[in-house]
Amino acid sequence: MMFEANEVEYEYSEHERALAGVTLSINRGEFLAVIGRNGSGKSTFAKLLNALLVPSRGELRVMGLLTADESNVLKVRQMAGMVFQNPDNQLVTTIVEEDVAFGPENLGVPSAEIRARVDAALEKVGMTKYARYAPHMLSGGQKQRVAIAGILAMRPDAVIFDESTAMLDPKGRREVMSALTQLHSEGITVILITHFMEEAAQAQRVLVFENGRLALDAPPRELFKDAKRLYELGLSVPHAVELREILKDAGFDAGSALNMDEMVEALCRLLPKN
Fold first, then answer.
1. Where are the alpha helices (DSSP H) in 125-219?
2. Domain presence at residue 44
3. pLDDT by residue (tens digit) across 171-211?
4. I need a surface site. Which of 16, 56, 86, 209 has the fewest CB within 10 A?
């Protein structure tokens, strides 16, 4: 088990409770998406996983380590890296490869090992040829990939993406999602906080937060079967699911199409052969 939350609550102030009674577990190697309206508690939950915040009540453990124990904080942050929303706020040097090296240097990793880690991390996110570039010369998606490389160079067991595609254009979002799915394929636990339902549909499991509580927890194909319930929670559904519901109302069965590739296949089945 990578993360375990037991009756976790978090209060920013006496009158502002962000999370209430959250109990769940996340296994190692899992790809999990977290969705919910603004103010639902999903970003607070992300920060608790990384020990940037500690529960006001209840317990949260990362690989068995209690995050509320100050002696565990450094270990927790080494195991669970975090990529934030604004790529410009995460880059601290003037050269890409130096930025990726920043984390391992602060961990006291030997120079030769840092060189190997930087090269490997940049290769994983497809940014090797930009190693000597200045970050300000990169696109938003490329900057986020550099930020991901900086996390990977510290060799985490999990990476938490806190709305890391929110400020990117469609091309940048595709670049980051490609890097994210590649990490998952290599066994890294991925937690994706997102507003984009197409991104959530790519996960193995989706959590839905509402008013600080865990409202739904299901695989995406099961979750998006009930579009009405998601609409009631103030959420949208992937475009393919929306089209699927329109077709259903018109008397056409597009099956359980979850993305556009599956919808194209469904439409090909529905259209007359000639």
1. 140-152, 170-185, 197-200
2. yes
3. 888 988 998 998 999 899 999 999 999 999 999 999 999 99
4. 16
